[in-house]
Amino acid sequence: MKCVVCHGENVEVREVKESIEVGSDLLHVTVSTPVCQTCGERYYDRKTMRYLESVEAEVKAGRGNVKQVGKLLAYG
Ligand SMILES: [Zn+2]
């Protein structure tokens, strides 16, 4: 597969952390998705998009297997 952003040929499936804002918290969701190794563009298929949306809805409703792994910091 060719990257539509940089036209590079080096697109490989990788595990990436997608960040979703939940109020003032940040939720990291690990997904496997094709990533351009040249420019970093991620290519989410429909199934992965739906998965991310369902995780977001679940966590916003106060459910889901969530653990705290860090703090969200703001400067200034
Ligand atoms: Zn690219």
Essential attributes:
two-stranded antiparallel sheet; alpha+beta; globular; binds zinc ion; 76 residues
SSE blueprint and pairings:
Blueprint: E1 11-22, E2 25-36, H1 46-60
Antiparallel strand pairs: 1-2
The structure holds zinc ion.
Give a written overview of the molecule.
This protein has 76 residues and is an alpha+beta fold. It has a domain at 11-60. Helix content is 20%, strand content 32%. The protein is built from 1 helix and 2 strands, in the order ββα. It has one helix spanning 46-60, and strands at 11-22, 25-36. β1 and β2 (25-36) form a beta hairpin. The longest helix is centred in the C-terminal third of the chain and has 15 residues, at 46-60. The chain binds zinc ion.
Taking pLDDT < 50 over at least 5 consecutive residues as the criterion, the unreliable ranges are none
Please work out how many helical segments DSSP would assign. Answer: 1
- Write down the secondary-structure element order: EEH
Average predicted local confidence, pLDDT: 95
Cross-sheet strand order for the largest sheet:
1-2
Tell me about the largest β-sheet: 2 strands, antiparallel
Bound molecules: zinc ion
Radius of gyration: 15 Å
Q: What structural class is derived from the secondary structure elements?
A: alpha+beta
Strand segment count: 2
How far apart, in Å, are the first and last alpha carbons? 43 Å
Question: What is shown here, in short?
Answer:
The chain has one helix and two strands; from the N terminus they run ββα. 20% of the residues lie in helices and 32% in strands.
